[in-house]
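Human: Here is a favour to ask of a fellow structure person. Comparing notes only helps if you start from a blank page. Give me a protein, with the fold worked out from its sequence. Please set it down just below, with no commentary around it:

Assistant:
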Amino acid sequence: MKRIVWVLLLLTVLAGCRNETQNRIRRDIQDYTGGRRYITVYALDGTPIHRGTVDGQVTRSISEVVGGAAVETAAYVYWFDTAGQYFQTDMPYLLSSKPQPGQAQ
């Protein structure tokens, strides 16, 4: 019963937050619980071209705000791996909490 109350409280708090605040709360929870994220980047033909472990978050670029709404003028994502290397791509990708076949844990 206590768990349900905490989940409902968390959902209520998240509903009143902006997207970036919600994302930060989710990342903090994931960092606290020790969850790992794995990313697979695909070529346009669907062939996997990169697999790796994400340290922290994967961030989408938003370059401009027009009329109060975010407009993606340069659509790409970027992240750091566990060795601290920076990655950036505009290719399709899959972000998962479970490693994909052939991906190191």
User: Anything to note?
Assistant: Residues 19-33 form the longest helix (15 residues). The helical segments are 2-15, 19-33. The first strand starts at residue 37 and ends at 42. Residues 1-35 form one domain.
